[in-house]
Amino acid sequence: MTEFARNVYAAVRSIPRGCVMSYGRVAALAGNPRGARGVGFCLHRNPEPGEIPCHRVVFADGSLAKGFAFGGEGVQRALLEAEGVEFLPDGRVDMASCGI
């Protein structure tokens, strides 16, 4: 596992329940501010799906990942709703209230 991947997983583990973080923010915390796509690559290969809450990572505008690796967009939304994450009428996460 690369250092970037280890840093991505550490950053994602730090996201509290009921909150989300953008791919770009995770990339910056992992040491590569331009590595948002790399974050997605790492999360698709999440070695500990129950422990590393990759469902808490969304696009900067609050939209969900259509290709969420662990069941699709609907599963990601259900997991976030179960944690109390608020959504806007258009289906995006309310980043103003839940984003960190």
Brief summary of the model shown:
It is built from five helices and two strands; from the N terminus they run H-E-H-H-E-H-H. It has helices at residues 3-13, 23-29, 36-44, 73-82, 95-98; strands at residues 21-22, 57-58.
What do these coordinates show?
The mean pLDDT is 92. The chain is mainly alpha-helical and 100 residues long. It has one domain: Winged helix-like DNA-binding domain superfamily/Winged helix DNA-binding domain (Arc Repressor Mutant, subunit A), CATH 1.10.10.10. It is 41% helix and 4% strand. A two-stranded parallel sheet has the order 1-2.
Total count of helical runs of at least 4 residues: 5
Taken from the alpha-carbon principal axes, the silhouette is globular
Percentage of residues in DSSP E strands? under 5%
> Strand tally, please?
2
Task: Supply the helix-strand structural class.
Answer: mainly alpha
In N-to-C order, the SSE pattern is HEHHEHH
Quaternary structure classification: single chain
Question: Portion of residues in helices?
Answer: 40-55%
Order of strands side by side in the largest beta sheet?
1-2
Over all CA atoms, what is the radius of gyration? Answer: 12 Å
Distance between the termini: 26 Å
Number of domains: 1
CATH class descriptor name: Mainly Alpha
CATH superfamily: Winged helix-like DNA-binding domain superfamily/Winged helix DNA-binding domain
Query: How is the biggest beta sheet arranged?
Result: 2 strands, parallel
Determine the mean pLDDT.
92
Name of the CATH architecture: Orthogonal Bundle
Low-pLDDT stretches are none
Stated plainly, the CATH topology is called Arc Repressor Mutant, subunit A
